[in-house]
């Protein structure tokens, strides 16, 4: 995955390989920012967030395990608009993939 630097003139989203970048948490520093991407080829969301603390993980484990291949992350609510846009883009990418399979 390509690491992207924040520049004041950058658009809300930009492309990196097949990844569509939607933004970083505007209220954190450059090196420790929750971020949102969409993988257009897979139609998946990619989320970078803060690792959940042990107490939060324990609470979540009441509903199921957290395998070694998965992580529980915390994303601030102020990123909901960016996540909504990323969800819409992922849904469009999935629809386009489904449409091309029907041809």
Textual characterization of the structure:
It contains 2 helices and 6 strands. The protein has 103 residues and is an alpha+beta fold. It has one domain. The chain has a 4-stranded antiparallel sheet with strand order 1-2-3-4, covered by helices on one side. Strands 5-6 form a two-stranded antiparallel ribbon. It starts with 13 loop residues before the first strand and ends with a helix. Residues 1-11 have low confidence and may be disordered.
How many DSSP H or I helices? 2
Shape: globular
The tally of domains stands at: 1
Biggest pleated-sheet summary: 4 strands, antiparallel
Uncertain parts? 1-11
- The strand line-up of the biggest sheet is 1-2-3-4
How many strand elements? 6
Strand portion: 15-25%
Q: N-to-C terminal Cα separation, in Å?
A: 31 Å
